[in-house]
Write a structure and sequence with these properties.
15 strands, alpha+beta, single chain, 10 helices, six-stranded mixed sheet, about 350 residues
């Protein structure tokens, strides 16, 4: 082989090696930065403590007035006034199944320098089965009437206002016999910025939803129903929509659709440096007690698995609830034992899709 060709080949190999080393170093630096950010988040995380015996029993059930048909205030926001909110710890739970990891996801509207805990407009359970490579995304409708430990009976979203993430985790665990120990809280403004950082997400919209977004957005969508690319502002408007029919049933469906779209968009990022940058940016807008090891291990497992699938649903399940009234305001009264049975069947047993994918019926 001529000397000039050998020389060129050596130069090519050297260039490739340098480029590869640069990518590896950049990736390592980016992920190292993410790792340190997660450690900082963990330093301010809610504590996990042993459960006091005093919270083991339910308080007497409040009397609710039955409502026939759809209540007139279905689209209204009902929030509890809490003069002295607390920061509750999470009560330690024995794992139900070591291969099933449960994480509570919350979307909040806490504002800077706000003394209260703020409000949570979205409560979801993300349950991942490492054996089946299946994740379940379950919404808890915010007007579901549950027992809040130490506070009595109230809407589930009042738990965050009363005692922050710790009390919300404890409330879900107590009412549904779960073992949640990990959480992720994201403020809505941060959620909006993350979607913009991803370049927008695609969501299927009908004409009513498009009009609702266009009436409130600085950027207009075409009026025809179909798949639309939403920026952060439009996504947030869509997630908060309770006005185009179906109330909170449809609103929670929209939120799950958005979460799935974000996940699908994240899976398309093939550049490890870019992925680490997006993850690092997202961490600026979240609170979590998940360790770096859990986040990286599960993240890589989910994003690189060809067998991975995600299913979605909500609490309450169909035919397990009714509208009711408390102090003149509507709530959702549920058959708690039946919802526990169906939820555990989905998370820990056969994972039947037809029990999990639920549609609202008028």
């Amino acid at each position: 082989m001529p000397d000039n060709i050998i020389k060129k080949n050596k130069q090519t190999v050297r260039i490739i090696a340098i480029a590869a080393a640069s990518v590896i170093l950049a990736s390592a630096a980016a992920f190292g930065y993410v790792y340190l950010n997660i450690i900082k988040l963990n330093a301010n995380a809610a504590r996990i403590v042993d459960k006091p015996d005093a919270v083991s029993a339910f308080a007497p059930v409040d009397r609710l007035e039955r409502i026939e048909g759809t209540p007139s205030d279905i689209d209204e926001d009902h929030f509890s006034d809490v003069p002295e909110p607390t920061q509750e710890p999470i009560y330690n739970q024995v794992p139900i199944n070591g291969n099933v990891i449960n994480v509570l996801l919350l979307g909040t509207d806490v504002r800077p320098n706000q003394k209260s805990n703020g409000r949570t407009d979205s409560i979801m359970l993300l349950s991942y089965n490492r054996n089946t490579r299946t994740a379940k995304l379950i919404s808890f409708m915010r007007d579901v009437w549950l027992h809040i430990p130490g506070r009595g009976w109230d809407r589930i979203n009042a738990s965050f206002t009363y005692g922050n993430i710790g009390l919300t985790v404890n409330t879900v665990n107590k009412n549904f016999n779960l073992d949640i120990q990990n959480y992720l809280v994201i403020d809505f403004e941060g959620f909006k910025k993350i979607v913009d950082k991803l370049g927008g997400i695609e969501v299927m919209l009908d004409e009513k939803e498009i009009k609702y977004i266009n009436d409130r957005s600085s950027r207009q969508l075409t009026k025809e129903a179909g798949m639309k690319l939403l920026n952060g502002e439009q996504m947030l408007i869509h997630c908060r929509n309770r006005k185009t029919g179906g109330g909170d049933f449809e609103r929670t469906q929209r939120q799950r659709d958005v979460m799935l779209s974000i996940f699908n968009k994240a899976k398309t990022i093939n550049d490890p440096v870019l992925f680490a940058q997006v993850l690092s940016y997202a961490l600026k807008h979240v609170q979590t007690n998940m360790t770096p090891d859990i986040i990286f291990t599960l993240g890589l497992e989910v994003l690189t698995s060809k067998e991975f699938k995600m299913e979605q649903g909500r609490i309450p399940f169909d035919n397990t609830w009714r509208y009711a009234s408390k102090d003149g305001k509507s709530v959702i009264s549920i058959d708690l034992s039946e919802n526990i049975h169906l939820l555990h069947d989905c998370l820990y047993e056969d994972g039947s899709v037809n029990k999990l994918i639920i549609k609202f019926e008028d």
